Amino acid sequence: MTAHPPHTPPFRDPHLPFAKRIDDLLSRLTLDEKIGFLHQFAPAVERLGIAAFRTGQEALHGVAWMGPATVFPQAVGLGATWNTELVRRIGEAVSKEVRAMRARDDRVGLNIWAPTVNLLRHPLWGRNEEGYSEDPKLTSAIATAYTQGLRGDHPTYWRTAPVLKHWLAHNNETDRATSSSSVRPRVLHEYDLRAFREAVEAGAVAGVMPAYNLVNGRPNHVSPYLREQLRTWTEEELLVCSDAGAPSNLVDHEHYFDTHEEATAASLRAGVDSFTDHGTDGSQITARIQGALDQGLLTEAEIDTAVRRQLSVRFRLGEFDPQQDPHADVRDFDTPAHRALAQEAAEQAIVLLRNDGVLPLAADTRLAVVGLLADECKRDWYSGTLIHRSTPLEGLYERFGAERVEFAEGVDRVRLKTSAGTFLHVLASEDGEDEVRGAEGALDPALLAGRTDLPALTTDAIGTEFALIDWDEGVLTLRAPDGRYLSVAEDGYLRASADQPGGWVVQETFRLEQHGSGHLLRHIGTGRHVTVAADGVKVADENPEHGGKPEIFELIIAERGEDAVTRVTSEADVVLVVAGNDPHINGRETEDRASLRLPAHQERLLRAARAANPRTVLALVSAYPYAVDTSGLAAALWTAHGGQAAGTALARVLAGDVSPAGRLPQTWYESDADLPGLLDYDVIGSRQTYLYFEGTPLFPFGHGLSYASFSYGDLEVRIDDGTVHVSFTITNTGDVTADEVAQLYTRAIDPALPRPRRELVAHRRVTLAPGATEELSFDVPLHCFEFWDVAQGRWRLEPGPYELLAGASSEDIRLRTTVVLDGEPGAPRPVLQRGLEGADFDEQSGVEIVDRAKTAGDAVTAAEGRTGELVYRDCDFGTGVSEVTTTVSGAGSVELSLAGGAVLAAWEVEESGSGPYDYTTVGAGFTAEGVHDVHLRLRGPLRLARVGFSG
Asked: What is 160-182 written as a DSSP string?
């Protein structure tokens, strides 16, 4: 007899459309199997030959957390390149390394949790390093390029599946799991949603991750915008993955729901498809989903919808078609091309802030290199483990020769003397000295433990001289002579064991607290003081009865950092001060910065260098802007932490091998006084970012100088088919080949309401040889000139004159012209027909937007301790009204007036006792006719949902 091959189920048939295959597979899965798929770590279904699958592989600027990989510049540095083609190639390289790493370690996932498209609205946000720009157009352009590289260009199969983070209006680490971002409709549509929308519409995004915070009083994990906005932007199935622990936060921290079953059901119905909670253990999430089903809070059809979205991603990744998957054999890892690309990216990210002619450096320059970051190549929380590394000092040694470079780090060199007269001492270690934290890879690096294989600190008569760095805010690190930082492991003992500060809870930071004539040394990670015991130096036990008394130390300073700087700088031709931040300290995930200022320790070094030698150049290596006075410096540059080739790149730019052409992706402000509150998300009302800021910035958005010069000319504009076509020429009038970043902005000349001072609509980075000219053309759709009309609840193009501005930054405008656009004239609000939705105001002060109900809708309330003021412009009462009603909940008062005049209607409302969503409608007599501005004043915790008029 002839054996027949077993029947191939339709879901295994590569000739069928994905939708039909998914239908077939769904029909074969049991309810329990489908529920299991909803946890981040979806188990295998062996009876169908389906492998286990996990969502979430971090790869923000290279593959992270899984051991060695190519490390590219931080995301904010990629934003500073303004080069979409470069970033697309980086995305391609990262996705190929993901595939190569997965081939040898199946823990590496293909569902990439990157890029981060949160806008860099506020420079004190701790995660500034993760975003691309404060501008939605630039952010979406860079994000689109990265996702296209991650996805690959095969029409059917994706190399990896990128997920955008973090939906939505997420720019604070302070109370991030419980704070609510108050986002008015114009800011929502014109600013926060735009970066997500344009990236999704480009077609290379597999999904999004909701953020921890709330928006308008409602957690992002039950956001109606997932359904009302996100899923309307594409016909592709999008996978929404929760952030880690966020499903439980809905009950445990936000107290938005009473039970986890309610919370999980609400998240799934809102659009969350994969739950990241409790690590690899899916049992609690699956039990909650089953409980929600049993209670009638969910249906199996709703579970099917979520599973379908996950399966759609898995099919696109080629999981079910290994023979057809064009990416299955990709093994590109740490290739010469990837190393060259990392260096190219680091070079292109460098921004020349100012230059009096000292740069580029002559080949025979005698250089003094000083600063706390001069011999550092820093990693951040989302970095891979460095295979290669280049510090600025190493790069300059290689480029100029070690004999022409003098170095002083500028640390304070100290010894710590105990009350017994002995000193803290680091014992020599024999084994394991070259271990690097995270080198082995970890699905959750927060769980990596500190080392206990090295000897604990002890005391002796001489002691060890430590390098002390004050990172500001009283946070300091102590480093032993062998380069290892003092750290505390789980057993509580201090050891010189860490190659760098790091970890979810950093164990390498301390505070010196004045205590009489000495100091207590507090370990920040545990919050406990350091004690000296017979068996070694450790932190005090949580129970004071079980641990020794805190030791009182005398700080013996062997050398001040500025003295070392002065010693090496006075005889140099040029001094390079390398300053900046450690990405794990004072500004990172979970921790916002307190100030824009440069840490005082580094200010001391900068002042010392400048005093010793006027030809001082400052290189800032940081994840965010600083307010630093550069007026007395010969030159200043900024780069984000540049990855594995950072030092080589900086040296090549300083030497003139590469002309700098990075551009600032966000405004650099002069001082903290220029900033709004961190939780003030109203970029329009509080005049935030270059779009609305009316002060004088330290350096403007888009700023960056070159070793060449460029002229702009031949501006031409025409309008047809709903598009503004703009062209102009750029000529390199300098002596070296260089890149220029041409930027095109627009502004409404006489708008009826506040519009951006100028707004980026297009840009291009071009390379020009000396004397070369290139014509650039841009097609700007008319919708780029629209704004969100709150009176009509939709986009509208206001007719009238608009200025087009072309130049080298948002403030360095070289060409301008005016076009008159046809549009839809504004009309008064038809309040008789539509009333006024509380959140659809034109102006406000002292008001927060809150949730009208748990599922959808907005209301407004006075901020705690303040009187809320609301203005609704141009309300048309027609031939007259005689009554006004307000829909409100809670206790408080409402007053209504016209154009800020006398109060014409007022209400005092008492608490119903039924909760914040128990609304009542109350009326009052009120007469008005014609068009007027309506002013409302709110007091107390009352929520206002709507105002209606009749008569």
From this structure: SEEEEEEES-----TTTTT-EE-
CA distance 238 to 753: 36
**Residue 882's Cα: distance from chain center in Å?**
51
Q: Could you give the count of Cα atoms lying within 13 Å of 60 in the half-sphere of its Cβ?
A: 25
- Alpha carbon distance 182, 679 (integer Å): 8
Q: Tell whether the model's pLDDT for residue 4 goes beyond 50.
A: no
Residue at token pair 């961190």: 678
Asked if 587 contacts 625 with a C-beta cutoff of 8 angstroms, the reply is no
CA angle (314 as vertex; 308, 317 as ends), nearest 5 = 145
One-letter amino acid at 796 equals R
> How many Å apart are CA 371 and CA 386, to the nearest integer?
22
What is the CA 608 to chain-centroid distance, rounded? 34
Taking residues 368-386, what's their average pLDDT? Answer: 97
Amino acid 951: pLDDT: 86
Confidence of residue 914 (pLDDT cuts 50, 70, 90): confident
- Residues 80 and 639: their CA atoms lie apart, in Å, by 8
- C-alpha 127: how far from chain center: 5
Q: Helix 300-316 and helix 283-294: axis angle, to 10°?
A: 140
Spell out the residues 6+ positions from residue 944 whose beta carbon is closer than 8 angstroms to its own.
Answer: 838, 859, 860, 861, 886, 887, 888, 894, 936, 938
Q: What is the pLDDT of residues 558-603, one digit of tens each?
A: 999 999 999 999 889 999 999 999 999 999 999 999 999 999 999 9
Q: In the predicted model, what is the mean pLDDT of residues 207-219? A: 98
Assign 927 to helix, strand or coil: strand
Report how far apart, in Å, the C-alpha atoms of 449 and of each of 107, 138, 299, 431, 475 are: 20, 39, 42, 18, 22
Place of tokens 């399966």: 311
CA distance linking residue 409 with residue 29, whole number of Å: 62
CA geometry: angle 262, 232, 157, nearest 5 deg: 95
Question: HSE on the CB side for 291, CA within 13 Å?
Answer: 13
**Cβ-proximal residues to 430 (8 Å cutoff; 6+ apart), any chain:** none
d(CA 717, CA 726): 5
Using one digit for the tens of pLDDT, what is the confidence trace for 127-136?
A: 999 999 999 9
Phi, psi of 714 (to 5 degrees): 60, 45
Cα-to-chain-centroid distance, residue 240: 18
Indicate the angle between helix axes 600-612 and 561-569, nearest 10 degrees.
30
104-118: per-residue pLDDT in tens? 999 999 999 999 999
Cα(752)–Cα(501) distance, integer angstroms? 52
d(Cα 292, Cα 262) in Å, to the nearest integer? 7
| C-alpha–C-alpha distance, residues 547 and 493, integer Å | 12
Report the distance separating Cα 732 and Cα 151, nearest Å: 36
Tokens of 52: 């286990």
CA pair distance 467, 375, nearest whole angstrom: 14
CA–CA distance, 525 with 776 (Å, rounded to integer): 53
